[in-house]
């Protein structure tokens, strides 16, 4: 359920990374915070938007990073919302209805396996960053699948070098991803938790694959991203 309270954020910049991939940074007011793994609905006041007037985007950063970091792509033809969002001037207001979502880290220190497809990496970037700053001792692995570009690749590569518990694996095909997941499941402890983030079709496909490996559905956590 959406929060009734609204927050006015400040647009800072949109960086064109490559092809149709963009990073967006926003400045949040002091009373605005969120948990890693959450998302919010954004709207753009004072702008005429055709079609959907707001979009849900996941936080890729932590509150301690002093800014809100988002990742998105536009495909060949940007929606009216995205074209307007990416073209905002620095300082322009952006409205949020507050953080939402339950795609959160477990309280227990247990092994974790993350799968991200494409822009589904955005909430997982925040989760991984939180883990690198924590005192958790159990291993955690990220399998990141993309056919052309890997968001936040430098961050993950650096953290994997710094953190002995963190393993970063990049794949390009479904077969490669299945091979990596199967290998992890075969050696995983009974307490391992699995986090899947991508489009609904890909998330459901990976969930079904984990089911064929006898992973308990209660240990699978889903974040299905719409409208990226």
UniProtKB/TrEMBL annotation:
Organism: Bombilactobacillus mellifer
Cited InterPro entries: FAD-bd_FR_type, FNR_nucleotide-bd, MRET, OxRdtase_FAD/NAD-bd, Riboflavin_synthase-like_b-brl
Highest rank taxon of the organism: Bacteria
Pfam families listed in its UniProt record: NAD_binding_1 (PF00175)
Name of protein: Oxidoreductase FAD/NAD(P)-binding subunit
Domain FAD-binding FR-type, residue spans: 4-106
Single GO molecular function: oxidoreductase activity
């Amino acid at each position: 359920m959406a929060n009734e309270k609204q927050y006015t954020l400040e647009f800072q910049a949109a960086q064109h990374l490559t092809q149709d991939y963009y990073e967006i940074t926003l400045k949040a007011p002091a009373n605005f915070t969120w948990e890693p793994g959450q998302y919010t609905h954004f709207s753009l006041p004072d702008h005429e938007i055709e079609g959907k007037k707001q979009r849900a985007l996941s936080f890729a950063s932590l509150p301690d990073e002093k800014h809100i970091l988002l990742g998105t792509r536009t495909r060949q033809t940007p929606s009216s919302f995205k074209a307007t969002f990416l073209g905002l001037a620095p300082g322009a207001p952006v409205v949020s209805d507050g953080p939402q979502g339950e795609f959160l880290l477990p309280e227990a220190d247990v092994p974790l396996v993350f799968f991200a497809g494409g822009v589904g990496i955005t909430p997982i970037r925040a989760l991984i960053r939180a883990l690198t700053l924590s005192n958790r001792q159990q291993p955690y692995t990220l399998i990141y699948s993309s056919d052309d570009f890997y968001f936040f690749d430098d961050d993950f590569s650096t953290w994997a070098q710094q953190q002995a518990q963190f393993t970063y694996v990049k794949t390009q095909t479904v077969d490669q991803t299945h091979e990596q997941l199967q290998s992890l499941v075969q050696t995983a402890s009974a307490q391992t938790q699995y986090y899947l983030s991508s489009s609904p079709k890909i998330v459901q496909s990976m969930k079904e694959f984990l089911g064929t490996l006898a992973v308990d559905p209660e240990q699978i956590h889903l974040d299905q991203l719409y409208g990226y």
